[in-house]
Amino acid sequence: MAKGKTLYEKSCMVCHGPKGDGRGRGAIHLSLQLADFTKQKYWEHPKVDQKVVDTVKAGVKGRMRPYNYLSEDDVQSIVLYLTETFKPQ
User: Fold this and answer.
1) Distance between CA atoms of 62 and 32, rounded to whole angstroms?
2) What pLDDT, on the 0 to 100 scale, is given for residue 62?
3) pTM score > 0.90 for this model?
4) Less Cβ around it within 10 Å: N or C end of the chain?
5) HEC states along 17-47?
6) What pLDDT is stored for residue 27 in this prediction?
7) Which domain CATH number covers 52?
8) What is the C-alpha separation between 57 and 61, in angstroms, rounded?
9) Taking the CB of residue 15, how many other CB atoms lie within 10 A of it?
10) How far apart are CA 66 and CA 44, in angstroms?
11) CA-atom Rg of the chain in angstroms
12) Which long-range contacts (CB under 8 A, 24 or more apart) does 63-72 make?
């Protein structure tokens, strides 16, 4: 969990924000709707964990650069942090 938090803060928070709502300071300059990890709808994807892994590793063309230098363990740590911190109960 601590590792995931550190990685999120280093690589994701600038756009996805400290609250995981897609309103980070880096998102202000984008004309895109970013993923909001605080919404139940985000977590309704049938394979949400794999979706996060794929997005982190491959990026999203024109929206997010790939973080393909992260290890599988790093990415799983981010998934755990997102789930435990932002997923609505």
Assistant:
1) 10
2) 83
3) yes
4) C
5) CCCCCCCCCCHHHCCCCCCCCCCHHHHCCCC
6) 86
7) 1.10.760.10
8) 12
9) 20
10) 23
11) 12
12) 63/30, 63/32, 63/34, 64/15, 67/11, 70/7, 70/11
- What is the residue type of 30? L
Provide the residue range defining the domain that includes 70. 2-86
Q: How many domains does the chain have?
A: 1
pLDDT value, residue 24: 92
Question: How far is it, in rounded angstroms, from Cα 14 to Cα 23?
Answer: 9
Say if CB 12 and CB 68 are below 8 A apart.
Answer: no
pLDDT averaged over consecutive 10-residue blocks of the chain (89 residues)? 97 95 87 90 96 95 92 97 96
Token digits of residue 87: 């997923």
Question: Which residues fall within 8 angstroms of residue 68, CB to CB, at 6 or more apart?
Answer: 57, 58, 59
- Partners of 76 in the beta sheet? none
* pLDDT for the residue numbered 26: 87
